[in-house]
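Incident review: delayed structure delivery

Summary: a single-chain prediction request sat in the queue longer than the usual turnaround. Root cause was a stuck worker, restarted by the on-call engineer. No data loss occurred. The affected request and its eventual output are reproduced below so the record is complete for anyone auditing the incident later.

Affected input:
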Amino acid sequence: MRYRRKNLKTLLRRIRTVIKTIFGMPDYDRYLDHWYRTHAKPGEFPMSEKEYYVCALKDRYERGGVSRCC
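Output delivered after worker restart:
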């Protein structure tokens, strides 16, 4: 039973990541995985979830990469 529950959680997490990627939404869990694998140093911490979303939104809309009609 635990094995099934763990597999279901993993599957749902992957589906969520795919959906976020398709719609261009920032994925905090993916950011954390990347940060700990490549940037982690003693005494440094990743951005909070709120900081991450604010940074992702600024990056997306302030750099002029979004084309829209209005």
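Verification: Residues 2-23 form the longest helix (22 residues).
Action items: add queue-age alerting; document worker restart procedure.
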